[in-house]
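Q: Hi! First time doing this. I have a protein sequence and I read that you can turn it into a structure. Is that right? Here it is:
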Amino acid sequence: MKDFTATEYSLETIATGRMFEDEGWTLDDSRCDCPSLVRARYGKKQLDARDVSEGIYRFCDWMPVRRVLKGSCAPVTYKSEKLAAHLGLDNLYITFNGYFPEKGARMTTCSFKETEAYTVCGRMQGDMGKVLVVASAGNTARAFAKVCSENHIPLLLSVPEDNLDALWFEGPLNDCVKLIVSQKGGDYFDAIHLSNLALRSPRFVAEGGAKNIARRDGMGTTVLSAATFIGRIPDYYFQAVGSGTGAIAAWEANLRLIGDGRFGSNKMKLMVSQNAPFAPMYHAWKADSRELPPYDDDRARRDVEIIDAKVLSNRKPPYGLRGGLYDALKDTDGEMLVATNEEARQAAELFEKLEGIDIHPAPAVAVATLIAAVREGRVAKDKTVMLNITGGGEKRFKSGKTLWYLRPSYVFDFNPDPDDVVRKAEGLFAQ
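A: Yes, that's right. Below is the predicted 3D structure, encoded as structure tokens:
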């Protein structure tokens, strides 16, 4: 870990356009009277991508980081041959986030959530004096646990108990990483609720999710990887979404690339997808509604149990707020798509057969919807298509290894006593 001076930037409130300075961990604009994201406006308009040896920090011109952390890897983009030929596409580019050493991809958590963790933790000041709190359905927790463990950053994770199998690692983690979980039968929303109770204590600070500019600008490096490799902004962007934060980040990176002036002036058509039957954003978009439809808690938990891509199960995504996914889709003439478990499984098998690497259920949903979109004639064969594989290579990475699993310190029910949560969470970090 070393000191790092970030590129100069200010914050802009999407709803009002108000510009103001970052106080260090600003997540929203206290002067804005409606829900809105804030966006980083960087002083450096043209991106100077550094050597790949610098990991994700090769794109630090457009990342609000104060320090460089060890162990990072940037997304890797390559031109598809076999899948492209199978689909009849001339210009299919795959941005791979995971473990695919033949392509130079070495994210050891096998997920693009590493792009978030390295930038969020890099934004933190070393003397912040707070314990970072992260709620996750699995992959985000694994990424933050790795980064915080390797860089000795205190971290409290909150995860659904049903998703504990996602918390695998090569070896034991540093004791600075602690885990609490919501009882079996819960989902990501329950984990968020539990983390919010812990955040009543002044000892903790929220990572912030989509509100954190570092999270979004870290995820936006997928598009920076693609554009710098291809030499232009793609025409289409395919990704599966749970919160939609990655797609929002892609849109914002696209806008910065337009401002750069060297990559074209087009806006990628966002083609984002959910795993049926858990598809609240899909249903809202089809109804042309900024508001999500009502979703009964029990039905939502049941639908989460059904889907393969558990990481796509966010019941309270940043969809309708200003600068959220609804606005991103409108601005790019995008579409919300949906794929079933069976369609995604078939897509995953096809991808591994043709591209030579296994992928997670979430990107398999994106592949399935790309296949359908091409079949239905919604993507012309000569268009430049970016497929964001948000996780893969896990089977390859785990092969021959004995894994270590992070176990929870406490299991809480769906409606725990807030004081009990605070007391136990604080106790985990007692000096």
